[in-house]
């Protein structure tokens, strides 16, 4: 089961130095999600050879333009390309009004149904769920209503270890083992779940932008395999970060450490920083497994089994 | 007096093949204008080393997204970059509502005043005027209200030919000659305007997108030094062009010929065309001075004097 996050944008607010504002393409097997959709996201999708047509769910963290100004163009293009599948958008209520007003004036007839799902400020919500994953929204602390998202893999059945399988396994025995149950045979022998099967640890990806340093998010991101946390500034601008509703690289690393995640991606860099190496130098002493959100870079979350 | 048109976008509807939807940066001496502002225009401005901060007037032809979806990001970025000069936007009324709703939800405080000027459908209007140029809007025929724009240089004073100037020219004589008047001296000699000065032919640039073939625009674009006319399709799609409110390369060339303009730029190419050479092959037999809107390309309109 592929689980992969591709960075389409890495900068805060203004495009510069070939960096674009926030967007991420998240793929879980055949389910493609888009997290934020800044201006030129559709162009970034083309550039990094992802397929916009495969995206069925778009999650917008908040209504600052650098997180959704590319949505209007993407939605238009999908219609011009004759999409027919339903497309789900998850965002704060204002976006519905913006889309309605915008497309009313263009007299655009969509070729596909667009379903808007409201994210209610200050609440935790499960936004989307299928038989493999769910996407949960949780409140961040920013200047306007803002949510983080976490993609949670559901508990999968245990996997039989091929090399150990006995030729006389019956179907009911296989199903029981996959469901995590030991099997007691009539002859008194026991087929041990621990011996014959592997356990999959459910994987999680958490996306946190834009936010001040806040430990209120720890319950949602705890032990995530991968955490994206904004780091708009460096440590010497901690006060300014707080004032503008943002975090520093040090703060992102501290959150990652406290949440005991496996890996951390930093992004949403202020355009005052041309060189991004100091973000790593600041974060890695606190949280060594820190990486920069470089555009086009994919982070794969591999299954962990035991 | 520099008069130059730089192509920032050349494609119709959807960005593809590294082509972007419509935007043009027009510079007349120190006055910078933007005609249409599709998604990623602010990125194209950076790429082609123009200065967004120098733009004081933005003209939007109509409210299809591929002509203005980059405006929201550009306006935001100018504010984040602390612009203080007033910025004028000229567009159909719906855009004011779109901007109001969008920026209300982002709680954005602009650092500069934004002045909206409504273009009234189906009318001719002078939108902007300074002591050097004026910009006139005139109706096009498209699926929704749509205007073309023409930048008209005002009649300049005649220019004295340095090599011919007499050492005893008085200031009143110089002013009279510049104003096109012959000067009768007390000794009976005449200082001839035709001999001592050059005449500047006022220059004009006309921008026509999106529109069907219509001769109703001829009075506005007649004898323009440079005409941009959309050519979304080739001749074999004439019926489809009419149905969708667009033109073919042949039709654009015919308009250029009838209007007796000096040069024609074709643009707004449908994404069905990867190779654009057929647009030239179709137009040049009718109007030889035809060029393609290639992104980054600048067309200079040089003064014609006699």
Question: What is the mean pLDDT of chain A?
Answer: 95
Strand content of chain A: 25-35%
Quaternary structure of the protein: homodimer
Secondary-structure element order of chain A, N to C: EEEHEHEHEEEEEHEEHEEEHEHHEHEEE
Based on CA atoms alone, the radius of gyration of chain A comes out at 22 Å
Approximate shape of chain A: globular
CATH class label of the largest domain in chain A: Alpha Beta
Point out poorly predicted stretches of chain A: none
Which range best describes the helical content of chain A: under 10%, 10-25%, 25-40%, 40-55%, 55-70% or over 70%? 10-25%
CATH superfamily of the largest domain in chain A: Ribonuclease Z/Hydroxyacylglutathione hydrolase-like
CATH architecture of the largest domain in chain A: 4-Layer Sandwich
Number of domains of chain A: 2
**Chain pair sharing the greatest interface:** A-B, 36 and 36 residues
Strands of chain A, count: 20
Distance between the termini of chain A: 16 Å
Structural class per helix/strand content of chain A?
alpha/beta
């Amino acid at each position: 089961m592929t689980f992969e996050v591709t960075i389409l944008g890495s900068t805060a607010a203004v495009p510069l130095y070939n960096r674009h504002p926030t967007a991420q393409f998240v793929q879980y097997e055949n389910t493609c999600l888009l997290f934020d959709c800044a201006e030129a996201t559709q162009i970034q999708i083309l550039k990094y050879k992802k397929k916009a047509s495969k995206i069925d769910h778009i999650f917008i963290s908040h209504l600052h333009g650098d997180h959704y100004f590319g949505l209007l163009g993407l939605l238009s293009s999908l219609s011009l390309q004759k999409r027919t599948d339903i497309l789900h958008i998850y965002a704060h209520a204002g976006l519905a009004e913006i889309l309605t007003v915008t497309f009313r004036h263009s007299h655009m007839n969509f070729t596909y149904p667009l379903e808007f799902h409201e994210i209610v400020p200050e609440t935790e919500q499960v936004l989307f769920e299928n038989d493999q994953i769910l996407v949960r929204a949780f409140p961040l602390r920013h200047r306007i209503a803002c949510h983080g998202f976490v993609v949670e893999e559901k508990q999968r059945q245990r996997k039989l270890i091929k090399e150990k399988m006995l030729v006389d396994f019956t179907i009911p025995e296989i199903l029981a083992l996959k469901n995590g149950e030991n099997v007691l045979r009539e002859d008194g022998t026991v087929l041990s779940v621990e011996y014959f099967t592997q356990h999959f640890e459910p994987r999680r990806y958490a996306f946190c932008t834009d936010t001040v340093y806040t430990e209120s998010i720890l319950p949602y991101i705890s032990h995530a395999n991968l955490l994206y946390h904004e780091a708009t500034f460096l440590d010497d601008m901690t006060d300014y970060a707080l004032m503008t509703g943002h975090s520093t690289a040090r703060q992102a690393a501290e959150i990652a450490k406290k949440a005991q995640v496996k890996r951390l991606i930093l992004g949403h860099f202020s355009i005052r920083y041309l060189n991004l190496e100091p973000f790593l130098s600041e974060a890695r002493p606190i949280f060594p497994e820190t990486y920069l959100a470089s555009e086009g870079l994919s982070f794969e979350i591999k299954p962990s089994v035991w």
